[in-house]
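During the no-cost extension, the postdoctoral fellow (Dr. R.K.) reprocessed legacy sequence entries with the updated structure-token encoder. One reprocessed record is reproduced below for audit purposes.
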Amino acid sequence: MTTPRDMLHKHTNAIIKKLIACALAGDLTAFRLCVERILPRPKSDNIIDFELPDGRIDSGDNMLAITNNITKAVATLEKTIDEAKKFNEFLKHQC
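Re-encoded structure tokens follow.
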């Protein structure tokens, strides 16, 4: 059985080209769809607002400063422990 997805698949390139042409011609809906594919909105539960020090994030001094700032933010109730855990998980992948 052929699904709608299968039927569309063979026309993917043509559809994308048409969408881009419509966006470039001023179709705001097509423009929004293109932009959302290029710059998807982050999920709100994945956003942690945190100021980083200048320089490389993976330098030893910056990692120590970041860790101290996270600890301070949790201690002053600016950030939750869960936010700190998520941020630390992010940092682990930066080294």
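The CA atoms of residues 74 and 82 lie 10 Å apart. Helices lie at 4-9, 12-24, 28-38, 60-75, 81-92. The remaining legacy entries will be reprocessed before the final report is submitted.
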